[in-house]
Amino acid sequence: MRILFFISLMTSFVLVGCIGDDYIDDFVNPGVRITNPADTLALGSSYQFEATYFDGVGMPQEKVLVWTSSDELVIAITDDGLAEALTDGESLITVTVSDDPTISNSKLVATGLNTVLPPQERFATVASTSSYALEGDCSLHYEGTQLVLEFESNFHTSDELPGLFLYLTNNPETTSGAYQIGPVTTFNGAHSYDLPNSIGLYDYSHVLFFCAPFNVKVGDGQLSN
Question: b or e along 106-126 (b: 16 or more beta carbons within 10 Å of the residue's beta carbon)?
């Protein structure tokens, strides 16, 4: 009886320690993200812009998206995102959800000698949203053709949780629809994770840490645009 009581007490301690008392609302504002931005388009060239719409729980959904250019004399663009660099200058390229014009995303694009893409790297600073330690910087970048999530030497998180998992997500309040990278096995210092080719640099907006056995958020970090 004493052994059973001890096990029950320890289980209750872990549950209370991990779960906490907060209610988590998993709604996020719907949005649209340009998934292949360009800084500069070569004069006389064409470039197919692409974007993805994310709904109120961060899931990609099919929507009719309309593209526009603030200066069609510099960069002309079709409704479906095919741009043509015509003259020297710059233009604001905007993608808008056709049935909700309040949802849009824009990128200032110049014309020049060559097509130039932004640096193929995004950054995040992760921080705790719970009573457990979590801090550090990370980057999402390519090493050759391999997409890598790399944590810096200042990374630290608690090793006291019964099951801490790492995700990429568009909704930092839930693991639903997130890509599960796997369990956290390095709790201090620099380390990295190789990601599958099916994931693109701009597919997700946040790095997310969850206590998987109890589905409780531990912390997150927003990736730079």
Answer: ebebbbeeebeeeeeebebeb
Scan for tokens 């330690």, then name that residue.
Answer: 133
Residue 159 and residue 93 share a domain: no
Domain span including residue 205: 119-222
Report the CATH number at residue 44. Answer: 2.60.40.1080
Three-class DSSP category at 90? strand
Rounded distance between C-alpha atoms, residue 146 and residue 200, angstroms: 10
Asked whether residue 23 is domain-assigned, the answer is: no
Helix (H), strand (E) at residue 52: strand 51-54
pLDDT per residue of the chain (225 residues) written in tens, 0 to 9: 444 433 333 343 344 444 443 445 678 889 999 999 999 999 999 999 999 999 988 889 999 999 999 999 999 999 999 999 999 999 999 999 999 999 999 999 999 999 999 989 999 999 999 999 999 999 999 999 999 999 999 999 999 988 999 999 999 999 988 999 999 999 999 999 999 999 999 999 999 999 988 889 999 999 998
Residue type at position 218: V
In a domain, 167, yes or no: yes
Pick the closest to residue 167 from 159, 158, 175, 155 (CA basis). Answer: 175
